[in-house]
Design brief:
The complex is a heterotrimer of chains A (456), B (336) and C (234).
Chain A (H helix, E strand, L loop, with lengths): L4 H20 L2 H28 L6 H16 L4 H31 L4 H31 L17 H21 L4 H21 L1 H4 L15 H6 L1 H10 L1 H6 L3 H43 L2 H11 L1 H6 L4 H27 L9 H15 L4 H29 L8 H8 L4 H16 L13
Helix pairs in contact in A: 1-2, 1-17, 2-12, 2-15, 2-16, 2-17, 3-6, 3-7, 3-15, 3-16, 4-5, 6-15, 10-12, 16-17, 16-19, 17-19
Chain B lengths: L1 H37 L7 H22 L9 H29 L4 H23 L12 E3 L1 H8 L7 E2 H23 L1 H11 L1 H6 L4 H26 L4 H17 L5 H19 L3 H7 L18 H15 L11
Helix pairs in contact in B: 1-6, 1-9, 1-10, 1-11, 1-12, 2-3, 2-4, 2-9, 2-10, 3-4, 3-9, 6-7, 6-9, 7-9, 10-11, 10-13, 11-13
Chain C lengths: L3 E8 L7 E8 L4 E5 L6 H9 L4 E8 L2 E2 L5 H6 L2 E4 L11 H8 L8 H10 L1 H5 L10 H13 L5 E5 L7 H16 L3 E5 L3 H7 L2 E6 L2 E7 H6 L1 H7 L3
Parallel strand pairs in C: 3-8, 3-9, 6-7, 7-8
Antiparallel strand pairs in C: 1-2, 1-4, 4-5, 9-10
Helix pairs in contact in C: 3-6, 6-7
Classes of the chains: A mainly alpha (456), B mainly alpha (336), C alpha/beta (234).
């Protein structure tokens, strides 16, 4: 207990900060911060598994997040029957064709010796395959995208509850990570970072521009929620009663019955958004807790010990007969899958999928700041990092405004310099992130909650 | 005649734009490669350092314009570049002193330094956005075209026009001058050779009495110069937007790795490899084939290998292929 | 008093002492071999003399001058030069540039010195503009020697110069080392191949667990039955 005191204190402070936001700004803001903190925590856990357990740098977090989001679309949106009719068959053929190309390339590489002939063979298979693919999928894509482009123009999804997508998202991201890992894990650490960063850009490019699959930059909106809608809640008897009960004190102060009803209505509207966000926060908390339990168990299992051994001394672990490559691949897939879950969670919360919004600053580098700040190798640290950094990211603007007013208080209200600074407030968050990261790396290189190795 | 038309078409839409875009990438890739060779880490601030240098060049350009100074047909930015460079040099040296030198002294692993460079990336981005804002800005003035499509058609009597923007010529000329000076410096001067030696074998360089502090400082100075010039040329040719510059970091890294990271000459060529393949693979060749094929064979589709949406994806795919089959880069990596 | 000597050197890398009261000395125009089993502290003794290791006690002097407190760089200025065991050339630079880098600290014209090196190792002159990475193993070793000689050292230290080279190259290399010796340079080399090293060395030291165990002329050591039994394989 005592050795975990720092963890407990850090978390209490964090929760306290969120509660302060609730008291001083609004509970709705506080809860959406909390929800995104939880999502960030999941992402950070994924990255932390790769970096903290195995020392792998994955700068492709953005790609996995987007794939998780895509999963949410493909799971929850009802299928667009018309689109399937005009192009579904061809698209299925295309998928089979891609599989055929991959398998025949693998077959050639496996069964023939390295030679010029083999290279030409592989090239030929790929080129012919791509041309065929183009011929089969090209017209199908055109006709799919022509199906009422303003509302659909894509194949749609399975029409299942969106919660399934949290698992599907994990599989999507894990599958991509398997392919990338096969390709890139042999690379040196910094090459791996660059390669994953670029591959994630490719993933985004595909999601953005393959409209038949994801509607691309036209976005998918109105995804079904796993929790009630505000409008429905506001009509529900029990909910109104609940709100009335909670706010009895305020309501009783009002004597005029009309005014009282008005007030109640207002409170119900506010209460409904809070209630919805609470539901989300509850769901997300469950995910975070499950993941925390699993990752903690894994960390202190013989497997976790082996991973740390590999991380700290790859050569020695290799010499001891541990299959480093295989373990790295495994952890790369697991970590990415967790990020995929987070991606699906985020789209579920937003209720919309906007491929254009995936940018590396927000979805890759910010997550890395969280990992480093929180404490790499420590799951509680990673979660805390997700919380703290997201909180700062959101609250940076008010903090910056306060600081600017404080430091320029000697200047006139209309001073150009002061006005310019106030205009630039949104960008101070980058400054805070950067300076924060640099300070942590310099003075607390193991993060707020450093890794603790139990010697048992 | 049709053949000439076809060639002019390719020149106009592929060769000329790829050459200037390639030069801009090459300047970035060279300094990324140089930093990797000497300081031994992946410098993620690359794109933002370019936007930092360009921003100050723009500020000085505005100042000179307000004073009424201009170069006539040439863009005013050309006289502002040296001032932009000076401030950028100052900035990178301060940054090195405050941030990077600590980790170098501690002999931190390269990964750590790469992470630190992400910290400085955030800071640099913030500075640029706070000072000049995130908006798209054009700061080109002077004569826009050297050769206009119509003039070309009139002179040659061809159907296809050839447009040459003055920024494209400026880019090419400046790149040739800068790169020549740089390679002369690296290959012919004692300091340049000592930098190559340091990049090649740090321990032996120290044993030979080469001063690591000087080598590191010169590396940063070169990086600042190339970043400012490359960034300004890009901005003159297209426009200045901080986010675009940050994104340019990706093809720049691709160019540096394709050319064999740590090898500036490879990076220089890598810039063109990336630029040409991006444009070659996303160009619609329909018109070209209309010119060279008999009418009966005329294609009815665009003959475009990849849609232009995948421009970036092309360079990254090349990178992935290079990493897989020749991790040391096409032009043999390591060693300046 | 020897020209260059380390007397009673004791020290290690932070932890336990690796060498203790170890003494090694060499005169100009003399080759001294440091021998011993693995982990005997041979390389450590050499590094101590170079200044790459902080000694707890002991004294290093050259030409009567105490240099115990100088940094490695300043010892280079005093005329000590070192050829590491591995990575002892700039593989990406040309032969000529390797030599120039060797004389980095020299302000005056270095063409003369380079010509002297070319006279010593004629093959380098032929290959002067070739990249060192493309040279054969034996030629690389010559570049390494040449680079070290560019400072016009009075003392040359070689760390296992023959490790990993073929027997033919080894013979060639020893010839070159003898040539260097003739230019009145004091040479210390750490060697695994004890027999061969003693065949060209004037004197040898046998270290065991960081202490001087035997010392004497090459012949004496080669003929010492105890040394033969324990280190030269009978």
């Amino acid at each position: 207990m005592r050795q975990n005191l720092d963890v407990i204190i850090a978390y209490i402070i964090m929760l306290g900060l969120i509660i302060l936001v609730g008291l001083f700004q609004s509970w709705s803001i506080a809860l959406s911060i909390l929800c995104f903190c939880l999502i960030s925590a999941v992402m950070t856990m994924g990255a932390n598994i790769q970096w903290g357990y195995a020392g792998l740098i994955n700068f492709g977090i953005m790609g996995y997040t987007a794939l998780g989001g895509l999963a949410a679309v493909l799971v929850s949106v009802p299928p667009v029957k018309e689109a399937w009719q005009v192009g579904g068959l061809n698209m299925i053929f295309s998928v089979i064709l891609i599989a055929l190309i991959v398998f025949s390339v693998r077959f050639i590489i496996k069964n023939y010796k390295k030679s010029k002939k083999r290279n030409y063979g592989v090239a030929l298979v790929i080129i012919v395959g791509l041309i065929l693919l183009r011929l089969i999928s090209g017209p199908a894509i055109e006709s799919i995208e022509a199906v009422s482009p303003a509302t659909t123009g894509f194949l749609g999804g399975m029409g299942l509850p969106i919660l399934f997508s949290w698992i599907v998202g994990a599989f999507f991201a894990g599958g991509l990570a398997y392919i990338i890992g096969k390709i890139a894990l042999g690379l040196r650490a910094d090459y791996l970072a660059i390669a994953t960063l670029l591959i994630s850009e490719i993933v985004i490019a595909v999601i953005k521009h393959e409209d038949w699959l994801s509607r691309g930059v036209k976005n998918v909106i109105g995804l079904k929620r796993p929790v009630p809608y505000e409008i429905d809640l506001q009509a529900k008897e029990w909910f109104i009663n609940l709100v009335a009960k909670f706010n009895q004190g305020t309501l009783n102060l009002i004597t005029d019955s009309l005014e009282k009803e008005q007030m109640l209505k207002q409170l119900v509207i506010e209460g409904s958004t809070v209630f919805v966000k609470l539901c989300f926060a509850g769901l997300f908390t469950i995910v975070v807790i499950i993941l925390l339990i699993i990752t903690q168990k894994a960390l202190y299992s013989p497997w976790g010990r082996m991973m740390r051994a590999i991380r700290d001394n790859e050569e020695a672990a290799n010499a001891m007969g541990k299959n480093v490559v295989k373990q790295h691949l495994l952890i790369f897939v697991l970590g990415s899958a967790i990020v995929g879950i987070a991606g699906a969670m985020m789209v579920t919360y937003d209720g919309l999928f906007t491929p254009g919004s995936y940018r590396p600053m927000r979805y890759t580098f910010l997550i890395w700041v969280m990992v480093i700040v929180g404490g790499s190798g420590n799951n509680f640290g990673a979660v805390l990092g997700g919380f703290a950094v997201w909180f700062l990211w959101i609250e940076a603007a008010p903090i910056a405004l306060f600081l600017i007013n404080f430091f320029t208080s000697g200047l006139e209200e209309t001073n150009a310099f002061r006005l310019h600074l106030i205009d630039s407030i949104p960008y101070f968050r980058f400054l805070m992130m950067g300076v924060g990261l640099l300070l942590i790396m310099r003075y607390r290189p193991k993060g707020i909650l450093p890794e603790k190795i139990k010697h048992s | 005649m049709d053949i000439i038309n076809a060639i002019v078409l390719l020149l106009n839409y592929i060769f000329v734009p790829a050459l200037s875009y390639g030069s801009q990438l090459a300047l970035g890739a060279i300094f990324v490669s140089l930093i990797y060779g000497i300081l031994r880490f992946a410098y993620f601030t690359a794109g933002d350092l370019m936007s930092f240098g360009t921003m100050f060049t723009i500020l000085f350009t505005w100042y000179f314009q307000s004073l009424g100074i201009s170069l006539g047909v040439l863009p005013t930015a050309l006289i502002a570049i040296p001032f932009g460079i000076i401030i950028t040099i100052f900035y990178v040296l301060v940054k090195d002193k405050l941030v990077f030198s600590y980790y170098r002294f501690k002999k931190s692993p390269p990964v750590m330094l790469a992470m630190v460079s992400i910290g400085t990336m955030f800071v640099t981005q913030a500075i640029v956005r706070i000072v000049i804002g995130p908006f798209d800005r054009r700061f080109f003035d002077g004569e826009k075209f050297i050769l206009k499509a119509n003039e070309f058609k009139e002179i040659t009597g061809l159907n296809e026009g050839l447009t040459i923007k003055s920024t494209q010529v400026i880019t090419l000329l400046v790149t040739i001058i800068v790169v020549s000076i740089l390679f002369w410096f690296l290959n012919k001067t004692k300091t340049g050779k000592s930098m190559r030696a340091y990049s090649d074998n740090e321990d032996l360089a120290l044993l030979s009495g080469i001063d690591p502090k000087k080598v590191v400082m010169i590396t940063w100075v070169i990086a600042a110069i190339l970043a400012t010039i490359g960034g300004t040329l890009y901005g003159l040719d297209k426009s200045f937007k901080p986010f675009t510059y940050f994104n340019n970091m990706l093809p720049i890294f691709a160019a540096a790795i394709v050319g064999g990271i740590g090898n500036p000459f490879g990076a220089f060529l890598g810039g063109y490899v990336i630029a040409f393949s991006e444009i070659l693979l996303t160009y619609a060749y329909r018109k070209f084939f209309v010119y060279i094929l008999p009418e009966s064979l005329e294609p009815n589709s665009l003959i475009q290998l990849l849609s232009t949406d995948y421009k970036f994806a092309v360079s990254f795919s090349i990178l992935v292929i290079v990493l897989l089959f020749r991790p040391s880069g096409i032009f043999k990596g390591k060693v300046l | 008093m020897a020209f260059f000597s380390g007397e009673n050197m004791t020290g290690g890398y932070g932890g336990a002492d690796i060498i203790s009261s170890c003494t090694i000395s060499v005169n100009r125009g003399e080759i001294v071999a440091i021998l011993g089993p693995n982990g005997a502290g041979k390389s450590t003794a050499m590094k101590a003399m170079l200044g790459l290791l902080n000694l707890k006690s002991g004294k290093i002097s050259i030409d009567g001058k105490d240099i115990s407190k100088l940094t490695p760089q300043n010892r280079v200025r005093e005329g000590i030069s070192f050829v590491p065991q591995t990575k002892n050339v700039f593989t990406g630079l040309s032969v000529q540039e390797n030599l120039e880098m060797g004389a980095f600290l020299r302000e005056e014209r270095i063409e003369e010195i380079i010509n002297e090196i070319y006279e010593l190792f004629p093959v380098l002159k032929e290959k002067s503009s070739q990249i060192v990475g493309e040279l054969s193993g034996g030629q690389r070793q010559q570049v390494a020697l040449g680079r070290a000689l560019m400072t016009k050292p009075t003392v040359l230290m070689l760390d296992e110069p023959t490790a990993g080279v073929s027997p033919i190259v080894m013979d060639e290399l020893f010839d070159h080392i003898l040539k260097v010796k003739k230019t009145n340079v004091a040479i210390i080399m750490v060697e695994q191949n004890a027999k061969q090293a003693l065949s060209i060395a004037d004197r040898g030291y046998v270290l065991v667990t960081g202490e001087n165990k035997f010392s004497g002329t090459g012949k004496e050591l080669l003929n010492d039955p105890e040394v033969r039994r324990s280190f030269l394989g009978g």
